């Protein structure tokens, strides 16, 4: 028996969410008194693979060929399921990233496993049970999911488990896999970047604005603050509906769900549908001129005032800190 963690890379590099997933998977391996194996797909430098030992992966399997250069859901799921079988792993952990969301159910079907997506804590294993806490109903509730089948697939919500560094270098082994035509039913032909800015789902800091900004011409200060902080920009639904900002920035129940370390909400009322996508942010700062705005109820820090006065002051303050 072992635990397998899929270590997704972005252009050959691992993000913090992957170190979180390894640390989480290692803690599960400790709970089950077993070892942790990682599987990497695509082109990653050997030194970076060995480095994964630091977070708890004793062994890293790696597979790379031309067909696997870009993410292919079916093929990646087949490889991860095959690696789980070969390693006798009955728990598979991955990050609940864009690709993790597509992979978890596919791996679940291949391994006839129970699937818990969006886990936020270590499983409770008292009395031989295996219960995972996860978010439900667009982050409005928690669910305690008892995983009853022998095989289990768990995807971890980014930013919900801390990175632990206490291991040595991992051993790296090549993994071979006989792909079938059905593994490549869809192929990515080309990736066209919509923007060079920080991608919203991966951002640790997010500056977001709503209808309180009055119009698209006022987003200059939002972008300037975000650039200074190294943050991504986001917006409420009416803002993207009105074409003030692109739909890729819309967060909430019907937009992207995010959980950054810092979410700064400017001129956003805090409707329940907006909160559904942002309430699991670690620290929430709300700037709103209405002291009764519902967003203040979930804010860690609140500033009651006019965004057009406060944001320029914040920009100056950040600039002077950087100077
Ligand atoms: P408003 O509600 O108009 O709020 C503007 C805020 O700005 C107010 O609180 C006001 O006090 C403040 N303000 C005004 N001027 C200033 C100023 N100068 N300085 C500071 N503050 C100022 N919404 C989402 O965001 N995401 C979703 O995914 C989403 N999904 C939905 C799904 C459904 C099925 C439905 C019915 C609605 C959904 N909505 C969603 C819409 C949601 O209900 C709200 O209408 C929306 O979030 C409001 O956006 P807002 O806060 O930008 O605008």
UniProtKB/TrEMBL annotation:
One of its GO terms (biological process) is fatty acid beta-oxidation using acyl-CoA dehydrogenase. Binds 1 FAD per dimer. Its cofactor is FAD. Transmembrane segments: none annotated. Residues 3-188 form the Electron transfer flavoprotein alpha/beta-subunit N-terminal domain. Keywords: Electron transport, FAD, Flavoprotein, Transport. SMART domains: ETF. GO terms for molecular function: electron transfer activity; flavin adenine dinucleotide binding. FAD binds at residues 211, 267-274, 288. Gene3D superfamilies: HUPs, TPP-binding domain. InterPro entries: DHS-like_NAD/FAD-binding_dom, ETF_a/b_N, ETF_a/FixB, ETF_asu_C, Rossmann-like_a/b/a_fold. Belongs to the ETF alpha-subunit/FixB family. This is Electron transfer flavoprotein subunit alpha/FixB family protein. It comes from Pedobacter cryophilus.
